[in-house]
Amino acid sequence: MRLYADKLSETLNRSLSAVYLILGNEPLLIQESRLAIERKAREQGFTEKYRFNADASLNWNEVYDCCQSMSLFSQRQIVEIEVAENGFNAALGKELASLTATLSPDVLLVIIGGKLAKAQENTAWFKTLSAQACWVNCLTPELSRLPQFVAARCRALGLKPDNEAIQMLAQWHEGNLLALVQSLEKLVLLYPDGQLTLLRLEESLSRHNQFTAFHWIDALLEGKANRAQRILRQLAAEETEVIILIRTVQKELFQLLQMRQAIETQAIGNVFNQYRIWQTKRPLYSAALQRLSVPQLRHLLQLLAQCELLAKTQYSQPIWPLIQQLSLQCCLPQANVALPT
Predict the structure, then answer these.
(1) Which of 60, 139, 200, 300 registers the highest number of CB atoms within 10 A of its CB?
(2) Where are the alpha helices (H) located in 157-212, listed in sequence order?
(3) How far apart are CA 270 and CA 51, in angstroms?
(4) pLDDT reported for residue 337
């Protein structure tokens, strides 16, 4: 069974599974999910807990002994196995699938790991593993869903934000949901009536959003100029290495140019498959490909080359204005052409 983290509590109230897969890229949701499972398990007599890290030094015999060797006087126990980032592979997957198939009834197994690629989800070992487990999806909410996420968190705490307050909370805490939880807890204490407005937020909170080069790239692909500039300003304030931004956008522009040339003779769906574009990212790439022509993409690459030259040779001349110019030109609605389907 697969479910999203916000539905876990409902499932736990109905029954407790023998195996849980907590997978994703959002630390807050992963932590909340593991604690919710542990609380419910302790209510049902799982009083002992053991933790293992699935790295090269792990002794699997110890894990099997822990999961199978139950004596008359042993307590029911929770066994957590944490997989390092990018640690999932076929060998580990088969080991975990084998382990889940031989669990003692008095053992609750919780496997924690990062977000899986689509190719990993489609492997035989993962299908075997997920068929035996409750899979809790702990992904960071998409930007479009973040206001809904914020509103749900506020309702759970008895807070009553207006629409502008919800938007500001989402904007100020994007990429840092742990800080969002802390901010909401602070607001509960400050405003017992629960009413949240822009004025109250500005008086009580500061920005906690965390942006990376990939947030900037998504804004460029989607053509959101204001958002792209806001992200750039924060990256500049944090003294992000310009070369990191240049290399990241360079890869995307070259790929967009190749894709733009390919869709002249192929259906866009085939091109997406060829370049292994995730389903969630396809609307962003579609927007960029409709907006940017081949000459425009070549012009952007030339401008990017100027950025790199300036960054590597003219240390006294500021580079960020040129990066901002590149960002704006990438977002301008210049072409808007129909793509073959």
Answers:
(1) 300
(2) 163-172, 177-190, 198-204
(3) 44
(4) 46
Q: Kindly state the tokens that stand for 231.
A: 């992200």
CA 167 – CA 151 distance, rounded (Å)? 9
CB atoms within 10 A of CB 181: 16
How confident is the model at residue 335, as a pLDDT?
Answer: 47
Print burial letters for 47-77: b (CB count within 10 Å at least 16), e (below 16). eeeeebebeeeeeeeebeebbeeeeeeeebb
Q: Which two tokens stand for residue 11?
A: 């499932």
CA 160 to chain centre: 27
Longest dimension (CA), the chain: 75
The whole-number pLDDT of residue 202 equals: 85
What ranges in the chain are assigned the alpha helix state H? 8-14, 27-43, 60-68, 90-100, 118-121, 124-131, 146-156, 163-172, 177-190, 198-204, 213-222, 225-237, 242-262, 268-274, 282-291, 294-313, 320-331
Extract the tokens encoding 38: 């542990």
**Predicted pLDDT of residue 276:** 86
Check residue 208 and give its pLDDT.
Answer: 74
1 vs 105: CA distance, rounded Å = 19
Non-local (6+) Cβ contacts of 246 within 8 A are 304, 307, 308, 311, 323
Q: How far apart are CA 37 and CA 3, in angstroms?
A: 14
Q: What is the pLDDT of residue 336?
A: 46
Classified as helix, coil or strand, 73 is coil
Ranges of residues in the chain whose predicted pLDDT is under 50: 335-338
Angle, helix 294-313 to helix 242-262, in steps of 10 degrees: 160
**Total number of residues shown for the chain:** 341
Distance in angstroms (rounded) separating the CA atoms of residues 60 and 142: 37
Q: Is the dihedral of CA 314, 215, 138, 181 positive or negative?
A: positive
Torsion on CA atoms 17, 22, 27, 31, rounded to nearest 10? 20
